[in-house]
Design goal:
Keywords: Signal. Residues 1-22 form the signal peptide. This is PKD-like family protein. InterPro entries: PKD-like. The chain has three helices and 34 strands. A five-stranded mixed beta sheet has the order 1-7-6-3-4, with no helix packed on it. Strands 8, 9, 10, 11 and 34 form a five-stranded antiparallel beta sheet that branches. The protein starts with a helix and ends with a strand. With 503 residues, the chain is mainly beta.
Amino acid sequence: MKKNNCYFITLITLFLFLVSCAKDKGNYTYKNLDSHFVDIDALPKTFVVKQNELVKVNPTNSIEAPTNLAYEWRLVQQSYAPDPSTGTYVNKQLAVTKNLSYKVIEAPGSYLLVLYVTDKSNGGITQMVKMPFTISSYASIGWMVVHGDNTGSDLSIVVNNKLNKLLPAGTDYVQSNVFSETNGAKIQGEVANVYYIDNHWVDVFTKTNDGGVRLGGNDLRKLNSYSEMFINPLPSNNVKFQAYAGWSYNELLINNGDLYFIPQADINVYSKFGVKCFGEDYVAAPFIGTIFNWAYFGVIYDSKHKRFLYIDYDRTVRQFEAPSASAAFDMRNVGKVMVYAEHGFDNRWFCVMQNENNPSSRELYVCKFNVSDDGNRGIAKINISGATELNAAKYFAFGNKGNIMYHATNTKIYQNNYAGNLASTLMYDVSANYPGSVITNMKMFKVNNHPNDGKILFVALTNPTTKSGTLLQIEVNEVSGAFGTIKAYTGFGEISAMNYKSK
């Protein structure tokens, strides 16, 4: 009985306590503890900015936001791995004001711009807003265009949403003369070619005995002269750039008929070219086949003995095996002059070959290096000599998504049906659209894992009278080769080289 009485008294006491609390109006202030202090919809959803760009963000407070708010802006690295060059992880305070004004100085990469808004009157309740923040190099991602004359050249970059999908759809401009802006002077001499290397630098090669220069990928600042790219600097009378290629982290270069090879395994250390590749007597033509199998570290055409050669894992120059009965041709005894070579559809190496001083004899020799040498690496020989104006072609381009081959004279672009009737179809007449201009360069846009890989053909035009250059960005069907929309960019000098910059 006593035990039941205790339970009853306890229940009565609890009931009276709850009733008193419910009726208590007291001298208390009840506030809305909502943490939506700024209007998220009014903030940018994402940022894509360049180094040295000034970023301004002015958030709008929500209608019911309290007045006693504190603000903090931070830049946070998205990757959990530290920066390899500094060993640090970026988590940086940018401002403690409501409005942000910030000049971007961080290295290119993926970050988060984070805004913390704290209600100081209610125990520090905080709203956190995260916005993806991509920093690109001062020298933009885009299509590098080297232009000028035989005394000096500059490097500009075409920037648009087809080349960099992170950009808003309407983005379309030319970042002009980046090289001279950074270095205070133009590149000396006429440029032979330009390349972006995945370790984030740019190689510009010239037709002069200076050879060219290696540039930093962020701002195109000079890093090394051409001679300084070699452990034993080349004397000026031996400087003659002819070709460059790369695969994975490896670089290949042809200078004055000699092939050089160097791995760049450490992105923070630049490794220089050593001695040339030995093993056979050769004079390399100005084209390099890159590998798709570890049996070959690079393939060249020996213009002295008119044969294909390759280098193996220890950089020794070797002959190919004797051909089997099914081989299309003997890689060791071609007997032709190499006019042009480029990797194309199905990872094949397409080589335009002809007899000495006879452009009317042009044929297509096709190699494939997907397996170790078995005597069958010459897989096709196609006689396209009857194609319209092929004997007058100066420029070539091969697609990588279908059997596409373009060849161009001074003023006309043709597509050759090498996989069918061998005929060529006129695709574009420069003289009809740009009277007085001539073609000076042609290159397919081929970038692995890019949404427009194989879908753009760039054609450079120059008017010899005005010395002005025009770049045509031609959308192409990657399978059929048909031309689509053509966009023209002007304001260049004579365009001598062009290529893609991916970071």
